[in-house]
Amino acid sequence: MCPSAFGYLIETSDTSSEARDLRALVESYTRLFAGGELRESALTWIAVENKDHTPETLALARAGCQRAPESPFAHVQLIRAAALCKEYRLAVSSSSAARGAVQKFGDCFGIHLWRSLLAIDMSAADANTQIGPENAADAEYLYRKCLEVDPGNSQAILGLGLSLCALGNYDECRQLLKASLEKDEQNHLALGALGHVLLVEGDISGAVEYLQQAITVNPNHAAHHVSLGNAYWKMGDEWQQDKQYAYASWISAAKLDPSVSEAFSGLGKWYQQRGNDRDRAKKCFIKAVDLNRANGDAGQALAEMYLAEGSDDLCEDLLVKATEAKHDQQWAWKSLGFLLLRQDNHERAIVAFRNSLSLDRTDVLCWEGLCESYMAIGRMGTSVKVAKKVVELDPGRVSGHWLCARACMFANDLEASLSYFESAAKYASLTEFIPDLQAAWTQSLSVGRAECLVACAEKWYAEGLLGRVVDSSNAALEVLSIHIARFEDEAEDKSCSSYLIWSLISAACTWILRAWPMLETRADL
Fold first, then answer.
1. pLDDT tens-digit map of 178-231
2. What mean pLDDT comes out for the span 364-372?
3. Considering 133, 298, 386, 392, which has the largest number of Cβ atoms within 10 A of its Cβ?
4. What is the pLDDT of residues 277-334, one digit of tens each?
5. Nearby residues of 225 by Cβ (< 8 Å), 6 or more positions away
6. Is 472 helix (H, G, I), strand (E, B) or coil?
7. Quick one: pLDDT at residue 412?
8. CB 95 within 8 A of CB 72
9. What is the DSSP string of 105-129?
10. What gap in Å lies between CA 407 and CA 97, rounded to an integer?
């Protein structure tokens, strides 16, 4: 039989099957046709079936595609080899060309290679699942497509359940995983995923039970150990403190698969909160982030460490890379916004806050940061709108009313500013702060209100409303006198802290001195 006849038989076989006939065909081809164009792809098939996940397997698959670029068999083997070697993005990106090759071959010979298409979609779906939650929707689509072709496909049922678990669709996910267990009660992936679902839903003891079963079936699957460690951590107390529980689970995961980022973020958390070893915690968090820039738990913890030690450059680099790795990391945009705001990099801070708010419109702190950024660059009208959003989201928030007061004052809407200062003072009196914070708010609000009253006096003087000038200036002096009486003994550096206060007193007195004689003249008339 000639190579082309052998090749045709291989192309039209189930390329993802361990069927005896296909193995016999492939092995015969490699033995009989050392120069055949499918030789490298045939050797790849054998390597994949033997679970040989070495770089040589992937190199063979690439060579096979280069030698037979129109062969469906060659393209399928490249995808399977890429998935086996954990080159998941390569597996996904290669699927489009593979489908094209299958379609072209089918059109040429008048046949429908549905098994090859199924193998392509299944491998691409599995690869999307392995890439992470960000690709779960693509995986779901492909698994559903596979089930339309082959409704009882156990691999697709399990894969769909896992992808729905990542997407948070736990009801359908649970049904599919239980269906998988009915077919195979020793399916460790289904057991582990059900444990994860119960963990998310708060049934910690149930989660531990399923995860322990999964580990009993397959003790070498690192993800099960990570999830079990997470479950133990949620149980708190001795389950966190005692090394044989959460710590041991994460250590096992890290030893089984050093590429699992979540294992190192768990260990970092243990060293930070239970092991009292900041240096080891930091090393673990760095390792976790290096493995996966989208690891939010490790990223947040490491960012806080960098800020605490004053390493702003390292923190900024970490946050920028986190947003580049996964745009929907709201925590990273938010942290980056406040870091840039503190550095007076207001334009970039605005971009960061806006990106954060595009992911969570209810984050009051982000709205506050955005308001301060707009005020800093002089966009007062926009800052007023943003400040009002803070009050809308949290009407009793003192900082929201204070921001509105400041923004309105800078926008020259002084009456509104006074109103917001008064409401801020009201909510400050109703809110239980720690003593130092209570004092800080009281000082800030009283000085801010006095500043606004002096600004009102200036405005009304220009408008000829002399009575209002005197009333506003007197009100400012009253506020400032109360402030001085309350806080003069607490000021550590009176010359510095009192400068603004005495400037405001001077300004208020000046407006009274200017307005009063003119008022007397009017009275005489």
1. 988 988 899 999 999 999 999 988 999 999 999 999 999 999 999 999 999 999
2. 95
3. 298
4. 999 999 999 999 999 998 999 999 999 999 999 999 999 999 999 999 888 899 999 9
5. 215, 249, 250, 252, 253, 256, 263
6. helix
7. 84
8. no
9. HHHHHT---HHHHHHHHHHHHHHHH
10. 57
Q: Say how far apart CA 236 and CA 240 lie, in whole Å.
A: 5
Give the count of beta carbons closer than 10 Å to the beta carbon of residue 498.
16
Supply 17's token pair.
């099957």
Question: 484: domain range?
Answer: 434-525
Number of domains into which the chain is organized: 1
Q: Which helix (H) or strand (E) holds 278?
A: helix 278-291
Instruction: Specify if 376 maps to a domain.
Output: no
Task: Yes or no: say if 408 and 417 are a contact pair by the CB < 8 Å rule.
Answer: yes
Write down how long the chain is.
525
Give 180-207 as a 3 state SS string: HHHHCCCCHHHHHHHHHHHHHHCCHHHH
**Closest among 102, 61, 101 to 81, alpha carbons compared:** 61
Confidence tier at 493 by pLDDT (50, 70, 90): very low
The answer as to whether 467 is a domain residue is yes
First vs last C-alpha separation in the chain: 124
Q: Residue 525's pLDDT band (boundaries 50, 70, 90)?
A: very low
**3-class DSSP state of 220:** coil
In a domain, 455, yes or no: yes
In a domain, 484, yes or no: yes
Residue recorded with tokens 């098939």 = 45
Which residue in this structure is represented by tokens 């071959």?
105
Place of tokens 């096992």: 252
Of 105-119, 358-372, 392-406, the least confident: 105-119
